[in-house]
Amino acid sequence: MTPDFQEFRISAGNKRICFWGAPEAANLFPPNVAAQMALSGHNSGNLFIGAGLFRNVDCELKEYHPGFGSIPPEELHNHYDCVFIAASNFVSASVDLTSAYDYLAKTKLQLFCFGLGSQFLPTQDVSLNPGTENFLRLLSERSGSIGVRGAFTAELLWRIGIKNLSLVGCPSLLSLKSNAVASLLTKVASTTKVGINFSNNVRRHALDPESLRATENALFRRMLNENSYYILQNEEPEISIFNSGTNANAQLKNEIATVTQIFGVADLASITADYLRSRLRIFFDVDVWTSSMRTMSASIGSRFHGNVAAILAGTPALFLAHDMRTQELCELFKFPYVTINKAYAPDELIELLLKSDYASFVRQMKCIQTEWKLFLNRNGMDGGPAVSDVGGRN
After folding, report:
1. How many domains does the chain have?
2. If you average pLDDT over residues 269-278, what whole number do you get?
């Protein structure tokens, strides 16, 4: 049965929109992985954030800001009417947004922020760099409402007095299409061809780092024996291994040994080396990434956007929620997920993956889209069912 789902677009009328934040693409020909990583903001998952917002807005003009040194902030209003900010983990003690604040505070433009999130742990105090806090307060002053990822981020901002907030999740889900929804409601997950993703290089952010380590290592070990593909986002030395192609040298051997040690599979060193040489993938084009995930029978892992790629492809995924950023998004969207607060055996995770049900997610999307409309109205814009694929000039 065709689901009662309508694709969504943002209508900004005749606004000229300047985009800043997560990029929409990082394509280079010929490919250059190091340069593409830099263009993506050093995490290819950011591309889903940028593409979700940029591609799903109808307006007079839309383009990315050419750089703070290119247009004086006092003159930005001569070029644009509004700044759209495709946000990520800005609410963080390690983030310094002083330069962005210094520039945007001198402009005269409305600021529209979608997807603001946090990397704090529940027990941490909200301690921000002064430039970052100034930036967040500027967003509050220049916005009818700030779009945050979920309740946890909203609570953190409420503590520091920022209260004009809307729970909108991540703009990557603006790209959800009807055919993907229909597939999610009918496609049964299997281990025939599985996309896997890990957060093995950022375990310090986890609610329980040791549980995440044990769970990911056991899952990686299990997936060595499955028809699986390890989808990368910003993991080193895995990216170096991928980038080496067929070259075999001492550095490659050292990098393979490092990954083998990270995942605790020294007893399977030969199998792991073969796997890493042939089963790593990284994408810098969201369409190619989504198309690849469409060929998969399922996806599992702790990378939010690695699994969103599967969702947008109509492929069922099980999210391993290891930090508050991922947890609040899974809670808001009602994705099938497991909170990694203990060490999970891979068989248990695979069983949950095979039972994943997306009916609750599809029902929740109708509620989310209602909140998106309210959020847009609070910011002087509108949104609703897509009427065409034609956007603004770019």
Report:
1. 2
2. 97
